[in-house]
Every structure is written in structure tokens, then in C-alpha cells.
Design a protein that fits this description.
Blueprint lengths: L1 H10 L1 H12 L4 H12 L3 H22 L1 H12 L5 H9 L5 H18 L20
Length: about 140
């Protein structure tokens, strides 16, 4: 048993997900394969295994940088192509703490302000002179 636990622990978060999936399926191999296939979408079982690998990589980055910093970077990147209003609405609906929601909203607002520059461009003054026609 210790050997098995060491091998699953070496997999990290994907190993935990795999154990939970196996436990909920009652240990049925067919159920685990079906679960992995459904995770993989059109790529089937191999896609499901790839998703587990992606979860592992994502887990490492979150552990290294922290969930707040990772989410800030994701929303900063998404703000380049998506509406800020839509992103703010999405943040309000996330299942995270209110404190983290406020930090993300504030960060998103500061990204929008700094992308367009600190100061707006100065308008040009145009002087219209009414001259008498030359006869």
C-alpha cells in the first residue's frame, strides 16, 4: 500500500483526481475509462489523460505563484480581446472569496487605465481668423 501511495503522490494533483474518480466509480475499470474519455471530449481517453497532465502543470504554477497572481495574469491577457464589462461580471460569479473578487476587479480596472495611458491626449487649439476679402 505504501508503494502505491508513493506513486500516486508523485503524480500530484492529477493522481488525486484519478483516485477520486476511481473511488466514485466503485473501482470499475470501465467507469474510469468512461470518465477519462468524457474528460477528453473529442480526443477520448488520450485527451482525458492529457487533461490530467494539464491539471498537474496548472497545479504546479498555482503552487509556485499563488492563485491570485495566476488569475490576475489570466484576466489581464483576456482583457486584450474581451470586454472588460463581461470580465467583471464573470469575476462576480466566480466561486471565490469576496476579497479575491475585489482584488481581481481592482487589478482589471488598473489594467484598463494603464493600457490607454496615464493622461489623455491634449486637444489642439485651432484659431479661426475672419479676414476681409481682398478686392
Amino acid at each position: 500500500m505504501d508503494e502505491l501511495v508513493k506513486k500516486i503522490a508523485a503524480l500530484g494533483l492529477p493522481g488525486i483526481i484519478f483516485v477520486v474518480a476511481t473511488a466514485t466509480s466503485g473501482g470499475s475499470v470501465a467507469a474510469v475509462v468512461t470518465l477519462l474519455s468524457s474528460l477528453g471530449g473529442p480526443f477520448g481517453l488520450l485527451g482525458g489523460l492529457g487533461i490530467l497532465g494539464l491539471v498537474g502543470i496548472l497545479g504546479e504554477y498555482i503552487a509556485e505563484f499563488g492563485v491570485e497572481n495566476v488569475l490576475k495574469l489570466i484576466y489581464k491577457e483576456r482583457s486584450k480581446t474581451e470586454s472588460v464589462r463581461f470580465l467583471l461580471k464573470e469575476i462576480k460569479e466566480l466561486p471565490i472569496t469576496d476579497d479575491l473578487k475585489l482584488k481581481l476587479e481592482h487589478h482589471l480596472d488598473s489594467v484598463v487605465v494603464t493600457e490607454f495611458g496615464e493622461e489623455p491626449p491634449v486637444p489642439k487649439n485651432i484659431e479661426i481668423v475672419d479676414e476681409e476679402p481682398i478686392i
